[in-house]
Amino acid sequence: MDIIIVTDLDGTLLDANDFTFDVIHKDIIELIENGIEFIPVSSKTRMEMMSFCSELGVKTPFIYENGAGFSINAEASNKTDIIVGMAVDELVEIWNKVIPDELKASCEFLSNQSLDDCNAILGLSGEPLRLALERSYTALFTFNGNETALAALYHHAESAGLRLQKGGRVFCLSGMHNKASFIEFLRQQNDRQPKKLIIAFGDASNDIPMLNAADIACIIPSPTGSQLPPEVITTTKITASQPAPMGWIESAEAALALASDIGDVNYG
To answer: Where are the domains of the chain?
Structure first.
């Protein structure tokens, strides 16, 4: 049985405060060298994901913009990507038509905000901030309304075929895809290969579909100790005792041990 790791980045593999992972870099490389397929899955843009892969030092496939696109070959043009997302211009056009003005007044897209404001919201500056804002299939926005208004916003968006997902810092507007969009594709690629066991890692609500679509879900707590409620995860789950990045490798080791108990795995 082959193992595929699919993992969120910010707050899951990357430190929630400074976005580093150097303390577990060697561990990740060893997993990959031992034959485990490693696929980062994020709300990050394609260029941000390419930057991460460059820092990792491995040319790995990745899924970007909350499941809008799957880059099978990061070295190739994005024309070779599998795209299920809707272009930003189309998203915004539908948004402007279907969202009532009183709800839109509580939302502000980052594309309309100053770089200083975006820096304060995302915790990024310079080139990393530029890459985060160059989005093709999703639009980020802040929301300052109450819970009733937010529920109404979700209702109007979903009725129009749009999806809202809450990340760590902002809301993300997209088509009807999420981080689980390519999980079945990963399971089914090349039927002649051994059965694939998928281990997913996440820390936030927008990771839940991906975690539940996996065979083993690894939940990473925040630096404050808060975490996804265990009851929202319906598959076999492991909860790390510490935040990213050390919580990631802790839960990876536990998940691999559990995978060995499940069946014959091609690892090491």
So the answer is: 2-83+179-262, 88-174
Quote the radius of gyration of the chain (alpha carbons, Å): 18
Query: Is residue 222 a contact partner of residue 11, using CB atoms and an 8 Å limit?
Result: yes
| Rounded Cα gap, residues 65 and 179, in angstroms | 8
- What is the per-residue pLDDT across 166-210, written as a single tens digit (0 to 9) for each? 877 799 999 999 999 999 999 887 555 667 899 999 999 999 999
Chain centre distance of CA 79: 21
Amino acid at 99: I
| Phi, psi (rounded to 5 degrees) for 186 | -65, -40
Write the DSSP symbol of residue 206.
Answer: G
Superfamily (CATH H level) for 2-83+179-262: HAD superfamily/HAD-like (3.40.50.1000)
CA atoms of 260 and 257, how far apart (whole Å): 5
Q: What's the pTM value of the predicted model, to 2 decimals? A: 0.93
DSSP string, 106-167: TEEEGGGS-HHHHHHHHS--HHHHHHHH--SS-EEEEE-S-HHHHHHHHHHHHHTT-EEEE-
Would you state the structure tokens that stand for residue 15, as one six-digit string?
């430190």
